[in-house]
Write a structure and sequence with these properties.
The chain has helices at 11-62, 71-84, 113-121, 168-218, 233-289, 296-327, 339-349, 372-389, 448-458, and strands spanning 91-96, 99-103, 126-132, 135-148, 153-166, 335-338, 356-359, 367-370, 394-403, 406-414, 462-467, 473-480. With 497 residues, it is of the alpha+beta class.
Length: 497
């Protein structure tokens, strides 16, 4: 299907084009009809006047013409007709049998055979309009009749007179009409454009207001409303927008209220659980010191209680962290760190040095201001997630990249496991989301990656997940580096640790 040209896609150009098109068609149609009627009237009036004048002249000379005129009689009749109409530009021809007479010239090639035959058989004047060499001529044939008998019936005398007259005056008048119609059409088009601009302005004003209100609503200003005036379709549209905006504002306000209640509930529950969990953890620690003196069944129960308490404590801490993010109460405590050294400390603190293959730059290459605790949480969550749900080897790389928007530290954590399913990929950083049925009963709370993403965004960084072509998942974290960070790109391969 042919596409609309780009300049006509806007509402204003289309309105103007429609107005101009309607005005053009109307002006041309009106002009054509007016021209046709005026031209017909002018030619008809001129034709009737010429025929009437020619008939009067012919009747005047017919009285003095003998019943069987010869060539001299015919010439005298022609001269009398021309003498009675000296400034008409007429050419007159008289015929009787084989006799011919004409004046002022013998140029009568515009007499058609049909007109000649009609004059011989009819008692009334016969006429034709002929166009020759771009000019119009009126050709009239008139038989000379006489009356005889008691009934005074006109009879043909055998004599006929013909007239050829140019219609120069009529052509000039028609040309003047064409010029006037063209000027009137041009004026109509100018008025149409002006009216189109006014109409487009009136139509587009509420449309522009609606567009501005929609943009403000998209920016979060749900209290925006439109002024409704009139009772047309645009007024109905504005009122519908206002009703929709009011309903949306009420719905969003209710959702925000419910969300705030849910956040307060999570924060309150998490806070209330911390105290009994701390006591439970202290008791399990004391009991764990005496585990060697307990029987096997009691020791197994103690281990279950300790593991459950540990998982519940981790979940409470994660919930409180999420609550702080939701409340906007997170203020990072930035410190200048060597990211490679901080990463090594993260692995060493959890005993993961021998389970992760690392490739990081040398000392001082990647230094920037980060929150040490939160950077540790990010790296621990990603590496721990790869160790729990992936397969060996787990690889960790860190490098510096120079881009148009500055220098970046790029950290990648990958494994050799089954990877992330296509269904889970869009939700991998959502809260409480677990990427498979086998993980629903795991130690994971479903908040680790969500907290990781929040911490990365807190440092104006970016995080993404992908599957490797050869199998396994890869998480990439990008953190902006300071402008005055060292420019050296030397890397020290860490090898397998």
């Amino acid at each position: 299907m042919a596409r609309v040209p780009l300049p006509l896609r806007g509402l204003r150009p289309r309105l103007i084009a429609a107005f101009v098109l309607v005005a053009t068609v109307s002006a041309l149609s009106t002009g054509a009809l007016a021209f046709r009627g005026a031209r017909t009237g002018v030619l008809q009036q001129s034709q009737d006047a010429v025929i009437r004048q020619f008939r009067t002249s012919v009747d005047a000379v017919a009285v003095y013409t003998p019943p069987a005129p010869d060539a001299s009689d015919l010439q005298r009749a022609v001269d009398q007709v021309l003498h009675a109409n000296p400034e008409q530009g007429w050419r007159v021809l008289a015929t009787y049998g084989d006799h011919r007479a004409w004046a002022p010239s013998a140029d009568f090639d515009k007499l058609s055979p049909e007109l000649l035959r009609s004059v011989r058989t009819k008692r009334a004047a016969v006429f034709q309009r002929v166009n020759a060499q771009g000019h119009s001529f009126l050709v009239v044939g008139m038989p000379v009749t006489y009356t005889a008998g008691a009934d005074r019936t006109p009879r043909l005398s055998g004599m006929a007179m013909f007239l050829v007259v140019p219609q120069n005056t009529e052509e000039a008048y028609v040309d003047a009409m064409v010029g006037n119609i063209e000027r009137a059409t041009l004026v109509a088009l100018c008025l149409a454009v002006a009216l189109a601009l006014l109409a487009a302005s009136g139509v587009l004003r509420p449309v522009r207001a609606l567009r501005g209100a929609t943009r403000r609503m998209a920016e979060g200003h749900l209290d925006v409303r439109l002024a409704v005036s009139g009772s047309d379709e645009l007024a109905d549209l504005s009122q519908s927008f206002n009703d929709t905006a009011a309903a949306l504002e009420r719905s969003v306000a209710e959702l925000r209220r419910l969300e705030a209640q849910a956040r307060r509930f999570v924060a309150d529950v998490s806070h209330e659980l911390r105290t009994p969990l701390a006591a439970m953890s202290a008791v399990t620690d004391v009991l764990d010191e005496n585990a060697l003196h307990l029987d096997q069944e009691t020791g197994h129960a103690l281990r279950l209680v300790r593991e459950g308490t540990s998982r519940l404590s981790g979940l409470v801490e994660d919930l409180m962290e999420i609550s702080r993010f939701d409340a906007g109460a997170i203020e990072p405590h930035l410190d200048e760190l060597d990211l490679a050294e901080s990463l090594a400390n993260t692995l060493a603190a959890r005993g993961w040095q021998d389970r992760v293959e690392t490739r990081v730059p040398g000392p001082g290459v990647l230094r920037t201001r980060v929150d040490p605790r939160r950077f540790d949480v990010v790296m621990a969550n990603l590496v721990g997630n790869a160790l729990r749900h992936g397969a060996a080897p787990v690889r960790l790389t860190m490098e510096r990249e120079e881009r148009a928007d500055g220098a970046w530290a790029v950290v990648k954590v990958s494994d050799n496991g089954p990877g992330i399913t296509e269904e889970a990929m869009p939700h991998i950083f959502e809260r409480f989301y677990k990427a498979g049925a086998s993980r629903t009963r795991s130690e994971s709370s479903g908040l680790g990656l969500a907290i990781t993403a929040e911490n990365v965004r807190l440092h104006q960084g970016r995080i993404r997940a992908a599957n490797l072509p050869g199998g396994g998942a890869e998480f990439t974290v990008e953190l902006p580096l300071r402008r005055d960070s060292p420019d050296t790109d030397d890397e020290a391969a860490g090898g397998s640790r």
